[in-house]
Amino acid sequence: MIEDLQLETLINVVYEYYGFDFGSYSRASLKRRVDRIYQLDGFTRFSEFLSKIRSEPEYYKRLVEEITVNVTEMFRDPSFYECLRTEVLPNLAAKPFIRIWHAGCSTGEEVFSMAILLKEANLLSKSLIYATDINAKVLEKARKGVFGLQTIKQFAENYRNSGGSNDFSDYYTANYGLAKFNDEFSGKMVFSQHNLVSDGSFNEFDLILCRNVLIYFDKDLQERALNLFDSSLSTLGYLALGSKETMKFAPISDNFKQLNNEKVWRKIK
């Protein structure tokens, strides 16, 4: 098990050598994930672990991938997607062009969920989804729009529970145990690396989704990310967070109004 002092040393080394700051991540979550890779890769001495991170940039990338990986699925929390379907997208429909940002998009399941919602609302043709993550490996997977067929049954059930009424299989082609989602969706997506800890705003958006990412951050970093979203949202734009996340106590909360107890807020000023 990694000790607290060793974890702080690791945070300092990563920042000194690579400029990435894990200092604002929740210590309990960070420690759990560092412990996991330490055990997984068979280390018995912390000094060897640290030395490998210092001297091998490829191993540092592996560390970041292990620490930042998120578990996700299509139409996760169906009631949330029902809210997008019935309350958010109808209000964006009048816009000449719709820009959406998925921050911390992981392997892309939620990005493709959003594209399906846009198609069903006849808004896909005038929309662009920017999907970002710090983890280059998961972005590469997300770009492909390919998921295991064993997960599709759950995805299809979530889709129906979110108010979807079409045949879910119309949206992908099945081959060799894999489901590849249609190119019309990926054609409306831009995938790129973005670090919520250190990178700034890069556009003005009508809808920003950052679900189940802030739970890994401490209070200061949560506020920093929320300020970034606030400055990246157009007036009357929407911000969606995860089921255990809130902006209730954030300094910018007065700029937003929450919708019907779902984790969606509208920017009112």
What does this 3D model show about the protein?
This protein is of the alpha/beta class. Helices cover about 45% and strands about 20% of the residues. It has ten helices and ten strands. Helix 3 crosses helix 4 (about 55-70). The model has no long low-confidence stretch (mean pLDDT about 90).
Features:
single chain, 269 residues, alpha/beta, 44% helix, globular
Short description:
44% of the residues lie in helices and 19% in strands. The chain is globular and about 55 Å long.
The helicity comes to 40-55%
Total number of helices: 10
Low-confidence stretches: none
How far do the termini sit from each other? 47 Å
Strand order of the largest sheet: 6-2-1-7-8-10-9
Q: Per DSSP, what share of the residues sits in E-state strands of 2 or more residues? A: 15-25%
Number of strands: 10
